[in-house]
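Thread: quick sanity check before group meeting

JM: Hey all, I'm pulling together slides for Thursday and realized we never actually wrote out the predicted structure for the chain we discussed last week. Dropping the sequence here so it's in one place. If anyone has concerns about the input, flag it before I start.
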Amino acid sequence: MPSSTTRVPRRWIARLALAAFPVVAQADDGGDSWWATATWGNGQRVDIYGVGGVWRPGGQAEKFGRSDIEWRVQADVMSWVGHPTATDERVLWDIGLTPMFRWYPGSDTGKGFFAEGGIGAQILTHTKIGVGYEHWRNFSTAYQFGERAAIGTTFGPDDRYEIAVFVQHVSNARIKDPNDGLTYFGVTVRFPLNLP
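JM (edit): ok, ran it. Output follows.
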């Protein structure tokens, strides 16, 4: 018989979800850029579906003294769906905030092929998810760390759209056992929100 799981109050989920998204109507002020994201992933018998937002502060070429690296912040709300044979705990929600560093190898325009990665914070609505008949991945704590590495490219008019494939690992860094964690591979597409 499965043990009870920790649940995050719904009012906190709503507050975090609202904080995770930028205001869509913001103009491109001082070079800041905003994107909406759509994500799909799969790993260890769990499907991942999500939406989010990305903010890239402007003026980074001056701050870093080079134009082939930049940093940005990605916020996500993800639905994790466990295996269909799971007896319970088939769905949980993951709200994450991840600072990311990006490198454009061989480019000084901030466009084209890129590699990026970051480590951030994740909040789970449940501390386990069903991955089979009476089998669960147990995370023990609602607070988790998320590490992501990705490669991708910009495309479309003015290279304002982005697509990337990534690997993501989520675990509690052994704050508490058991710490099964979850590693999954996915793809994310980013759509610009800035006014032209």
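AS: nice. The radius of gyration is 18 Å. The CA atoms of residues 115 and 151 lie 4 Å apart.
JM: adding both to the slides.
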